[in-house]
Amino acid sequence: MTATFRKISDEKDLRGKKVPLRLDLNVPIENGAVRDDFRIRRSLPTLRMLRERGAKTIVISHIESGPDASLAAIASYISKSVEINAFVPDRNAAQAAVDAMDDGDIIMLENLRRDPGEKDNDPAFAAGLARLADCYVNDAFAVSHREHASIVSVPKLLPSFAGPLFAEEIEQLSKAFNPPHPFLFIIGGAKFDTKLPLIERFLSIADRVFVGGALANDIYKDKGYEVGVSVVSKNPVDLSAIEKNPKLLVPADAVAVGPSGKAMKSADQVSADEKILDSGPQAARDLSNILKTAKFVVWNGPLGEYEKGFVQGTEDLAKAIAESGAASIIGGGDTIAVVAKMGILEKFTFASTGGGAMIEFLAKGTLPGIEALKFAH
Questions:
Q1: Which residues touch 261 (CB under 8 Å, ≥6 apart)?
Q2: Where are the alpha helices (DSSP H) in 107-191?
Q3: What gap in Å lies between CA 57 and CA 135, rounded to an integer?
Q4: Which of 29, 137, 141, 269 has the smallest CB count inside 10 Å?
Q5: What are the residues facing 256 on neighbouring strands?
């Protein structure tokens, strides 16, 4: 897929240009401390590049941990690596802060989502952001599936560009549309209604599509298996077309928990009072065998409820992919968290910052944020 937007890295003269840089800094914070800095670390090269080229960088971003959530702790965290010259907690003071900037300075505005105009895609809110600047850069691929003001409206008001990380995400993920074979596509997590188009698309592209996590429970149910009190989609989903596809693979066994405790079960032997919480060892062996010949792997979503400690299936898969020698793309916050905790993140060819954005891009080939840049000034 060839990008049809301009890249900020190709611009010849950025010195003195006022640049609102949309980043995705929506990372978990506990007791005032950053718990997972993956997205922050991926944003640092862009900040350094704009500073070195003399731009006046105005970082705009959001955090979701509540209506009063602040980016102050994240500004402090970034400053350990790239100095943030000023954090602006009151957006009414933004113009004065921008006017005081020197070439190469970086300032950060407070959480965009403190103003309802961001999520409502309010034109007046977008215009207020645009008035601060000379050109706009989107380097927030992970939130570019949202039709929010800073993603889709500001680009229409200014000369606009893709940032380096944004462009890299699209370049790497687009490899899944014309991949080397054998190609294994793996999708986990929940929310079948949002992921069904993705599965349908890749059943026509990949050699095998492995569906795990809570998604597999819907397929078990469609096959007539007992799924007990396992998580399934609230709204009925018609799986008849994919369930019969010979390329589709689900875990052959599962870790089920019930009144009698935890047990390894064949997928068709779960009891009515049990809950499926992870894939089992046979599923791990099946995936390992497929990975012995795979040349390309895309994986998004865990195979179990890792936040409750059911991580074995996901960790076994991560290890098998890392050791396979196949080109590999992984994404999704839970997936990245597990792999990073294992200390093997660098063994994957590309780790996407996107969860929902990665899924939507792979399903549709575009995102609202991409379309906004295509038709911007």
A1: none
A2: 116-119, 123-130, 164-173
A3: 10
A4: 269
A5: 263, 276
Two tokens, residue 309: 């400690």
What residue type is assigned to position 102 of the chain? Answer: D
| Measured torsion, CA atoms of residues 138, 141, 142, 147, in degrees rounded to the nearest 10 | 60
pLDDT in tens, 317-359: 999 999 999 999 999 999 999 999 999 999 999 999 999 999 9
Instruction: To the nearest 10°, report the CA torsion of 162, 167, 173, 174.
Output: 90
The kind and range of the H/E element at 55 are none
Q: Considering the domain 8-167 in this protein, what is its CATH number?
A: 3.40.50.1260
Strand 350-351 relative to strand 327-331, pairing: parallel
Q: Could you tell me if 355 and 337 are in contact, meaning their C-beta atoms sit under 8 angstroms apart?
A: no
Given this structure, which CATH class describes domain 179-362? alpha beta
**Residue 233 is encoded by which pair of tokens?**
């989609």
ω into residue 182 within 30 of 0, thus cis?
A: yes
Cβ atoms of 363 and 191 closer than 8 Å: no
- Find the Cα–Cα–Cα–Cα dihedral 167, 195, 122, 352, rounded to 10°: -30
Read off the amino acid at residue 228: G
**Contact yes or no for 169/353 (Cβ under 8 A):** yes
What are 211-225's pLDDT values in tens digits? 999 999 999 999 999
Instruction: Decide if 8-167 and 179-362 have a common fold.
Output: yes
DSSP letters for 190-241? S-HHHHHHHHHHHHTT-SEEEE-THHHHHHHHHHT---TT----SS----HH
Domain ranges of the chain: 8-167, 179-362
Contact status, residue 44 vs residue 82, Cβ threshold 8 Å: yes
Paired tokens of 83: 């100095």
Do 242 and 248 touch, CB atoms closer than 8 A?
yes
CB atoms within 10 A of CB 224: 7
Say if pTM beats, i.e. exceeds, 0.90: yes
